[in-house]
Amino acid sequence: MKYWVLILFAGLIVLPGCEDPPGEDMGVSLTHISYNPTDYEVPAFPEFPKMEIPADNPLTNEGITLGQHLFFDPILSADNTMSCASCHFPELAFTDANAVSVGIDNVAGERSSMSLINSGFFTTGLFWDGRVMTLEEQALLPVEDPIELHHTWPEVINDLQESELYQRLFREAFGITSTSEITKELAAKAIAQFERILVSGNSKFDKVLRNQTAFTDEELNGFNMYFDVETFGFETPDAECLHCHSAPLMTSGEYLNNRLTPAETLEDFADLGRGAVTGVPFDNGRFRAPSLRNIALTAPYMHDGRFQTLREVLNHYNSGGHPSPNGNPLVYPLGLSEEQLDDLELFLHTLTDTSFYSNPYASNPFN
Amino acid sequence: MGRLIITFLAAIILLPGCKEDKSTFELVFKATYDGEPLVMFDDLDYKDDYKIRITQSDFYITDVKLINGDSELPLSEVEFVDFSSFNINAEKALEGFTVSYDELDPADYNQLQFSIGVQPEENVMKPADFSSNNPLSKAGYYWDAWDSYIFAKLQGTFEETPGNFDASWFFHTGKDELLRTFTIDTNISLGADETSSVTISMDHKSLLENQDGSLFDIQSNPTNHDPSDIGPIQMIADNYLNAMTFQ
Prior knowledge:
The structure holds 2 protein chains of 2 kinds.
Chain A: H1 2-14, H2 61-72, H3 135-144, H4 153-162, H5 164-174, H6 184-196, H7 204-209, H8 217-226, E1 255-256, H9 274-278, E2 287-288, H10 310-319, H11 338-349
Helix pairs in contact in A: 2-5, 2-6, 3-6, 8-11, 10-11
Chain B: H1 2-18, E1 23-33, E2 36-37, E3 43-47, E4 50-68, E5 71-82, H2 83-86, H3 90-95, E6 97-104, E7 107-116, H4 120-123, E8 142-143, E9 148-158, E10 167-174, E11 180-190, E12 195-203, H5 204-207, H6 231-243, E13 244-246
Parallel strand pairs in B: 1-12
Antiparallel strand pairs in B: 1-2, 1-6, 3-4, 4-5, 4-7, 4-9, 7-11, 8-9, 9-10, 12-13
């Protein structure tokens, strides 16, 4: 009798422990799906820096596949109408052709959509103002931004956990054993993997440097002006482009005020840009110098999309821009002729490279 | 038995003390202008008829080492001294931009040596050759037209008319021949568990002096961009020695 009483008490004590803790969903087991991730090698270009990939987020085909699906899937938006790709079209070098991007509620943002090409190489910060340092951090923000996808991550995660497609893709990418392990951090990692493979380094400019082709005389003239090259017998003025748009990525990654807006004081900027991030007044009105690779595909230009064409951009720099206390000294009146501006523009077109389209991951998997 | 326990406990207590104590050495760079702390974007008296503002001053130091006779302690291959983003107010300017070296063995030295510029063996390389945590990865500090790193950037604006600072000036040094190495005689004692430091004040007005002591005519020649005419930037490279004072 005593023996049975003991067993009964033990059962009373132990049995509640077998229940799920209140509020904790154990999810659906995914172990029946195979997990065999395969490494992905980013295309290498001899002139490029080595891409620095976080040790806890190595590139795999399965991770990239998941990231590709998440990138093109409107499941990330509150009303299922917009995805990352809605503001980053592959054919526009992952920009959207709008001066400023518009979110699901038809509310316009303040800034232009940035190209994602070669973003895996950028090490000085992301977005126009550098408010995050990594692609993993960046991928988390648009979902909950009220003027972008205007959703919440808990709701997105709930939708992803219930989706058989994503159950499989998350399992294959990260080896999770249950749907409860699907998190926003893993989603961001997958999107970051997808973005890291968007590599472009096969433009005419690159091929000329590799002695695979040659510039026309006009393009060469533009090249010499862009890089301030001193040539004998074919003198060109300096256009000073290289200081902020340095090879090979055609950006220095620095935050600069390129004199777009007249400002008497450091407080006279409608958009503080980098200054809003650092709190340093000298950074007001400064924005990250974007890469000029594929620049012919990414109109309109500047952080607010104020210039519709490359010629408008060149005209701005040729004029020296507007007075501003922290304006970049390298933006000053250049005195380039119309013919020289033509040549510079032709050179900028040699930075176009559409070969990344051939990467099967760079397209919408739902089409 | 009791003695054994006491010995054992004493060993536990004392053994960590047997670990060799290390030292820290700091190089503190202070930017000044005419002897006063330099704050970026401040109006600065320059020539009689116009003022200037300095908005950027930064440079590479390389091959930093402490020396005592034949004994050398290499501290680092390259550092980037960045007054531009550090000297944002008087407090920061007084504090100084500090480069710190930890875990050094205690010892005495009587010289500090470093170069301003990039050593020739690194200057044949490009930013893409370095990982992002290396200062030499800065793409904006390489000039293809020179086949060289930009060793130092010194730039700002000047008055065209009183109170109007819209016009820009900039001098960027570079190329192997403008690398300058400085050896400073100073006693540096790296004591155990201590931090030693050398403070280097760099007077920016002195950087802009001609050989005869007059100031650069920034209004007339605000830039250097002709690789065949390195006069102004050679002057700046040479001026670093006289512009620096050491404590």
